[in-house]
Amino acid sequence: MNFRNAVRNAVRFTGCMLVGAVLTTSLCARAETIQSSNIPRTITLYAEDSNRPYAYFDGTGAEGIYVRILKKAFARMPQYHLDIVSVPFRRGMELLKDGKIMGFFPPYARKDRDWIDRYSIPILRETVVVLCSNDYAHSHDLKVFPRDFKDARFANNAGYRLAGEAFFDMVDAGDITLEEANTTASNLRFLMAGRVDCYVNERMAILAGMRELAIDKNMARLFNETAIIGQEFGFVAYGPDPENQWPWRDQFADDLDKALADMRNQGEIDRLVVDYFAY
Prior knowledge:
alpha/beta, Solute-binding_3/MltF_N, Solute-binding protein family 3/N-terminal domain-containing protein, 2 domains, about 25% strand, five-stranded mixed beta sheet, D-Maltodextrin-Binding Protein, domain 2, single chain, 10 helices, signal
């Protein structure tokens, strides 16, 4: 074989090697992409750590009605894996507002939270009530909340604004005294000890707190539900993302909304609530 033919064959062989290498790299990259697409994306949501029965830390992990609902929703979305981190309410809202976490549950929708980018569909309807001692309820004409509760001593979960703007205006004006604790159980202890006259919270949260404290029916009769403030829905809230840390967030949020809507329409959310209180 002359030199010219040898060079031609060498070039042809080298070209085949390069083409083979490119094809192999391309196939490997494609295989890696396919493999990656089959791995569920981990979604980290932050949850309240002391909102029984809805979302709380039970000593080992996140628990509560919302936690159970979201776990069931994720079971319908195999493309995602759920990781839940429990934090105090105020801390969770601060992290969300600062763009340090993607989602937090279950805050209510508020006009002054216009920094929240989007909410999930409504998950649960909650009824906010005023619980007072019988002594206070029977000695006052309580027809309009909060007007008729002037000079009352109230307990409140730290960071909660369930009682409404007019209530907190009266607190700022000194017409209502407010004490705050982090948990429902602590605030119920204030009420039982006579340290406060009334307490605002969601009805099922109060019932769960009473169960936690093992309050029997005789003790429960010492309290009176004096007002229904309104009904609220809990959501998963998504905060700002200035650094584009979660470019897939809206796709996930859409997928979660669909799963939650299906669960609601099929009665699964109602069953989870009943099952929670049955155990």
